[in-house]
Amino acid sequence: MFLAFKELKHSKTKFALIIAVVVLISYLVYFLTSLANGLASSYTNAVEQWNSDQIVLTVDANDNMMMSYMKQGDFDGVDTGGSKTKLGIFPAVINNPLAENILDSRVDVYFFGIDNNGFIKPSELKDLTLTGNQVIVDEELKKEGYEVGDFFGVTGSTLQYEIIGFSSKTTYQTAPVVFMSLDTWQTYRYGSTNTPDLFSGIVVKGEIENLPGNLISYSTEDYIATLPGYTAQVLTFSVMIVFLIIITAFVLGIFIYVLTIQKTSMFGVMKAQGISNGYIGASVIVQTFLLVAFGIFIGLVLTALTGAFLVDVIPFAINIMFYSVITVAFFLFALFGGLFSVSAVLKIDPLKAIGG
Amino acid sequence: MTGVTKDFLQGDNVIRALKETNFTAYEGELVGIAGPSGSGKSTFLTILGGLQKPTTGRVLLNGKPFSELDIKEKSKIRLENIGFILQASNLIPFLTIKEQMLLHNKITKSKVNQPWMDELFLKLDVEKLKDKYPNKLSGGEKQRAAIAKALYHQPSVIFADEPTASLDTNRAYEVVKLLAKETKEQKKATIMVTHDERMLEFCDKVYVIVDGVLNEKLVDNLVVKS
């Protein structure tokens, strides 16, 4: 597209400004997407690691696993062709007893009580046996200075736990998870005397064939959607991103339209000379396409750079599929904006250009 | 063109902008069309160029029907057989003089005729300007470049609409002389609309349009020229 390229080359400043706008918007969109994705992942990483199909709670718990209490009988009552495993879950605040200021060392975590042979145990640490107060923790705690063999205390208890391994991508509602045996979890949850044999839920791989009346099952996706704030947060980000893409389309469409209108008489002369609508329209579309392509490329590079610098500070996750969908949406909407200008080109009357 | 008329609607009234007109231009002829503004000059030229349809009558180009064709076919014929030189110059602002010519090759997917392009540059004295953009050229240089562009694709007909409008007398003479010379050498039929009487002395034939009526004018100074 000779005409399109030559004009871009000739009017560098004008087009550089338009590209700058596309860069800023696409940077914002990609950055928000990564942030939204990172935040969503830190909500659900631990659950996604299970690769489970169903999650069972008590009906009384009202979607809140923390308020679900189950007995061995409930576990036995769940029939499945696949596998099932118990899970105890409860929030905790841990501290580092060796820290200069213990209050400053507090971290919010989730205690997961699991079966040593259950499939929800972090797979890379299958060989470690969880006994007594030995626990596996999420690698996020490395940032707090913990190493294997270190001990931490828990608010509201005199017990201390020993770290025997670090698991990766095991955060739940943005907090690191601490894996321990179900017995240890029950001791923490209900105290060391007359500890009841209770746990929170059952994680199931495969179809559930029979479920006692006091229990309710969720697909894993549905369970994630019930996590407090998760759906609202994902929805907010999605709406922002969709609107930004539409705004980009409008901004680009308006820019290109104004440029096209400015060139009305030139296009008129070209049409008088016999240059077809198709050729002129195609060069408008090619220009739009190039502006978006340049803008998006620079926006992506900036996002990648920012991500590389900030990955330790904020939850930032690049998802190729989201990026592809957004990129395609950018192009489609921008070209849609460009089509307005093409329709303006079609309406230009070559007669006017010739002074008729 | 034979039996051509053109009517316009103004409110409820039909205005006949061009009375029944018969007109022929032959190759190697520079034809001047003069007349006051509003006389129908532009209507005449735009009908010849296929930019609007005559109300009655028909236009033939190289002996083939032209005015009856649909818009696309007419565009194609304009692209290949007609060269335009317009008063505001028909140069595209973001292409260098050389690129203006290459654009035609790109659109028609034809090969670059380098020897002919070089010859045109020399003849019209735009050799030094070929890599410049139109806004860097003076009025006369622009018109010379526009003529080079109009001749480059070797059209059979050239339409020049007030080609000297923005030029001083010396420059204007220079441009029209060039146009006359190229018309002869390249065997084009060139039709030049102008209201500048001084330019008509270089024309082989002169027509005057007044109130939509076209008449051939036999001018004395044509003799002066020859």
Features:
heterodimer, A: 356 residues, alpha+beta, 2 domains, 6-stranded mixed β-barrel, two-stranded antiparallel ribbon, 10 helices, 12 strands, 19% strand, elongated, B: 226 residues, alpha/beta, 6-stranded mixed sheet, 3-stranded antiparallel sheet, 7 helices, 11 strands, 25% strand, disordered C terminus
Task: Give a written overview of the molecule.
The complex is a heterodimer of chains A (356) and B (226). Chain A has 356 residues and is of the alpha+beta class. Chain A is 50% helix and 19% strand. In chain A, strands 3-4-9-5-7-6 form a 6-stranded mixed β-barrel. In chain A, helix 1 packs across helix 8, helix 2 crosses helix 8 and helix 8 runs antiparallel to helix 9. Chain A is elongated. The two termini of chain A are 30 Å apart. Chain B is an alpha/beta fold. Helices cover 35% and strands 25% of the residues of chain B. The relative contact order of chain B is 0.20. Chain B is globular and about 55 Å long. The longest helix of chain B is centred in the C-terminal third of the chain and has 18 residues. Chain B is built from 7 helices and 11 strands. The chains are: A alpha+beta (356), B alpha/beta (226). Chains A and B meet through helix 1, helix 7 and helix 10 of A and helix 1, helix 2 and helix 3 of B.
Please indicate the percent range of residues of chain A in DSSP E strands (runs of 2 or more).
15-25%
Number of helices of chain A: 10
* Biggest interface, CB < 8 A: A-B, 24 and 33 residues
Q: Let me know the largest β-sheet of chain B.
A: 6 strands, mixed
Largest sheet of chain A: 6 strands, mixed, barrel
Which class do the helix and strand fractions of chain B yield? alpha/beta
What is the residue-mean pLDDT of chain A, rounded to a whole number? 89
User: What multimeric state do the chains show?
Assistant: heterodimer
Strand content of chain B: 15-25%
Low-confidence stretches of chain B: 221-226
Instruction: List how many beta strands of chain A DSSP finds.
Output: 12
Large-scale geometry of chain A: elongated
